[in-house]
Structure formats: structure tokens, C-alpha cells
Design goal:
binds glycine, 13 helices, Creatine Amidinohydrolase, binds manganese (II) ion, 37% helix, alpha+beta
Length: 439
């Protein structure tokens, strides 16, 4: 299976070290297991930053980067101690001895030594870096500094500044390397296959959870054991609830079903939405709404390239959607007034897309000095316009209960973009064709 090479993790740490001041230390924490109920835990998901820097999938580890006053660097890690009983019950632990080679670090020690090691390593440093969103690490940093100050004579050696390192790491994570893009292509392929399979098995009488199960089967069967986020399978009106995750209603003949689901592979997410008819055939009214969203999405895909600005592309999408809603009589009046009064927001109430990577809503700045940030090669973003006409909307009743979103994942290339999720059909003809080959 594809993985990010150890050398790439080393290069990521080297980049962070290069940004650190001399005589400084940086502390990045792993995630901890989370209780689901009583004695059982949620599937372990590593902290995305820690994973990005180490590729190490155990809980409760701490990565420590040091740059001394001469600019020499040192990478250390604190890990769960080897423990025969704990490993019999809960699984293998790498342990400090093996960590050095396995994670390509300079030193490793057991968590039992962490407090004392931090006091020692902080001593004489000027600056500490950490991720302020890792509140447990932030607290440990504060505690270490206080402890150091209380040691007679050593107190003067406590660091005097504590800096958040998130913006550096977010910037690094925003631009994906070729290896990251290859992994994201793999998880996009698996997720596309899952959507195709759901289309093929769909028929009236199934429940939303049958499609969810099929999707998750294909993810897991291909090594993407967990979804990157809770799958959304909304039939009929449920498609108009943006974060619907109940997924337990029967699928009705004549309704559309919206599936928003993506797998996670080696930490990287896919995020795909398709909307299709439960019966295998769109009605004329459904098709009329669907094609507005498709036109808008295709127009956006044409425009998303280096130096493009997401708000400008969004404006084009808004114009297409608003004009489409006017043509169908869902909105009334003229285009300009409707756009100015934001009337389309009743039906298209979210953004065009977001960065995608180790987090489904991935990190990275969308603005720079208050201005929209131009796209650059290596960014991976979603493109996901939608129209949601909830029951009771102020428009002709024939449109009520239609919810459509079409979401693809793209990587910005030197010359434009590459659609990672093109294996799953989205034109009406292609969807109906694929569905006709199913059960
Ligand atoms: N699946 C979450 C989103 O589309 O943003
Ligand atoms: Mn999305
Ligand atoms: Mn999505």
C-alpha cells in the first residue's frame, strides 16, 4: 500500500526546524484514545499535525524538535513504554528503542520520563513553540516553564516566549507533494468506486443505511477502513438537510438520493457528493434542477486554476444558479436584483468548496492580508455547488423536497486542475446508464 516515505516526514520536520529561531524547542502532541462508551473507544485517529510530521499512529506520543544556539538540530520523541500486559490487551507498541530507526529520530524515550525530559530540554532555551489548539500540550509547556522557574538557580533559564506554530504547519500542509497527491488520488478512486456501487445497487424499497453500508464496504474492502467523515445518505427531503447523518429512512420511488461520502487512506480524505434518482431515472423537474447545479459545477471547474480567486469563481456559480432558479420560476425578478439581495441563499446556502487533505475541511488560509488568496499548484480543493429546496419553500410545490449537490475533488496543477474524482459519473445520461447496469 502507498505511504508517505520516512524521508518526506523528515523533510517536513526539517522545514519546521528551518523556521524556528536558534535556541528554541518545539513540542507537538499525538492524539489520545477517546472513550465511546464505558470501556470501549472510538477508532483511534491520530492528530493530523502529529501524523504529518511523524507518520506514527500511536496515541500519547510527543514529538520534540530542538534547534540549539549554534543552529544544530535534534529530533526526539516520547512514546508509550513497552508493556507486556498492555500490549496483550490493547495492541503492540513500538517502544523507544525501535522508534529511533522506525521514525528516523535522533532520540526516543518513554512517556514516564517526559516531564523530567521537558524540564531538562527547556532549560536555557529562549523560545518554545507548540500548537495552541493542542491544549494539553500547551498546559504541559506552561507547567514545564513553571517547574523550571521553581528550581533554584535554574529558574533564570526558563524560556521567555511561547509561540503558536500553527500558521507555519498549515501553510506547509496546504500545498500537497506528489506523494500526497498520489495518495489522495488513491482514496478518491476508492471513494468514486463506492459511489458507483451505491448507484448500481440503489432501488426503491432499500433504506438509506443500505447505501451507507455499501459505500463503507467498498471503502474498507480497499483499505480505506474508515470514512473521512460521517457519510450522508439523504433520500427525498433529507437531501435538503446539509449535514444529515441519520441515514435510516426508506428510499422512495420517485425521490432523489444525495450521498456525500469519502474514505480516508493513510490519513488523507476524499469528499464526494453525488445525487441520483432512487428509481434510476430523473423526472423532468428533478433534471431541470440537477442540470443547473451541474452547469454551475462545470463552469467552476473551467475556472479553477493557478491565480484564480475562489470568491470570483463562486460569483460565477452564483450567477448560473440564480439565473437557473429564475428560469424555473423558483425565484422571480431579475438576475441583478436577486444577486444583490442574496435571494439565492435560500437555496444555495454554503460555500463553493474548501481545502482537502489530512482533514476533510483542511487547514490553510483562504485570505492573505484581508484579500482572497489566489490558488496555487498543489492545493487540493472541493468543488461542491448545490440547490436545496426544502418542503415549505416559497416556490412552486413541484420543486419541494429536491436537494442536489455535486462535489468533486481537484488538485490545482501548473496549467489548470485535475479532477481526482472523475471516475464517478455526474451527467444525467451517464448516471442513468450506470444505474441501468445495476441490480
Ligand atoms: N462532506 C463535508 C463537506 O462536503 O464539506
Ligand atoms: Mn466538501
Ligand atoms: Mn462533502
Amino acid at each position: 500500500m502507498k505511504k508517505i516515505a520516512l524521508s518526506e516526514h523528515q523533510a517536513r520536520r526539517a522545514k519546521l526546524l528551518s523556521l524556528m529561531a536558534t535556541n528554541s524547542i518545539c513540542v507537538i502532541g499525538a492524539a489520545s484514545a477517546q472513550t465511546r462508551s464505558n470501556d470501549t473507544e472510538y477508532n483511534f485517529r491520530q492528530d493530523s499535525y502529529f501524523w504529518y510530521l511523524t507518520g506514527f499512529n500511536e496515541p500519547d506520543a510527543t514529538l520534540i524538535l530542538i534547534k540549539d544556539s549554534a543552529g544544530q538540530t535534534h529530533v526526539g520523541i516520547s512514546v508509550q513504554p513497552k508493556d507486556e500486559q498492555a500490549e496483550i490487551w490493547h495492541g503492540r507498541r513500538l517502544g523507544a528503542d525501535a522508534a529511533i530507526n522506525s521514525l528516523a529520530v535522533d532520540s526516543a524515550f518513554d512517556n514516564t520520563q517526559l516531564t523530567a525530559q521537558l524540564i531538562d530540554m527547556f532549560s536555557g532555551k529562549t523560545t518554545v513553540y507548540s500548537l495552541f489548539i493542542q491544549s494539553h500540550v500547551k498546559r504541559a509547556v506552561d507547567k514545564t516553564i513553571l517547574a523550571l522557574k521553581q528550581i533554584p538557580k535554574k529558574g533564570v533559564l526558563a524560556p521567555s516566549s511561547h509561540i503558536d506554530v500553527q500558521s507555519w504547519l498549515d501553510e506547509a500542509r496546504l500545498i500537497k507533494s506528489p506523494a500526497e497527491i498520489a495518495l489522495m488520488q488513491s482514496v478518491a478512486d476508492i471513494s468514486a468506486q463506492a459511489h458507483c456501487q451505491a448507484m448500481q445497487i440503489c432501488k426503491p424499497g432499500l433504506n438509506e443505511y443500505h447505501l451507507e453500508a455499501e459505500i463503507q464496504y467498498v471503502f474498507a474492502r480497499n483499505g480505506a477502513r474508515h470514512p473521512a467523515y460521517t457519510s450522508i445518505v439523504g433520500g427525498g427531503d433529507n437531501a435538503c438537510i446539509l449535514h444529515y447523518t441519520q441515514n435510516n429512512q426508506p428510499l422512495q420511488n420517485g425521490d432523489l438520493v444525495l450521498i456525500d461520502a469519502g474514505g480516508e487512506l493513510e490519513g488523507y480524505a476524499a469528499d464526494i457528493t453525488r445525487t441520483f434518482p432512487v428509481s434510476g431515472y430523473f423526472t423532468t423537474v428533478q433534471a431541470s434542477v440537477y442540470n443547473i447545479v451541474l452547469d454551475a459545477q462545470l463552469a467552476a471547474l473551467e475556472l479553477l486554476k493557478p491565480d484564480a480567486l475562489i470568491p470570483e469563481v463562486t460569483q460565477v456559480v452564483v450567477e448560473i444558479i440564480t439565473q437557473g432558479l429564475l428560469d424555473l420560476g423558483i425565484l422571480t425578478g431579475n438576475l441583478h436584483d436577486n444577486i444583490e439581495r442574496l435571494t439565492y441563499r435560500q437555496y444555495f446556502m454554503h460555500g463553493l468548496g474548501h481545502y482537502l487533505g489530512l482533514d476533510v475541511h483542511d487547514v490553510g488560509e483562504y485570505t492573505h492580508h484581508g484579500e482572497p488568496r489566489p490558488l496555487s499548484p498543489g492545493m487540493v480543493i472541493t468543488v461542491e455547488p448545490g440547490i436545496y429546496i426544502a418542503p415549505g419553500s416559497d416556490c412552486p410545490e413541484q420543486f419541494h423536497g429536491i436537494g442536489v449537490r455535486i462535489e468533486d475533488d481537484i488538485v490545482i496543477t501548473e496549467s489548470g486542475n485535475h479532477v481526482l474524482t472523475s471516475d464517478v459519473p455526474k451527467t444525467i445520461a451517464d448516471i442513468e446508464q450506470l444505474m441501468s447496469t445495476g441490480a
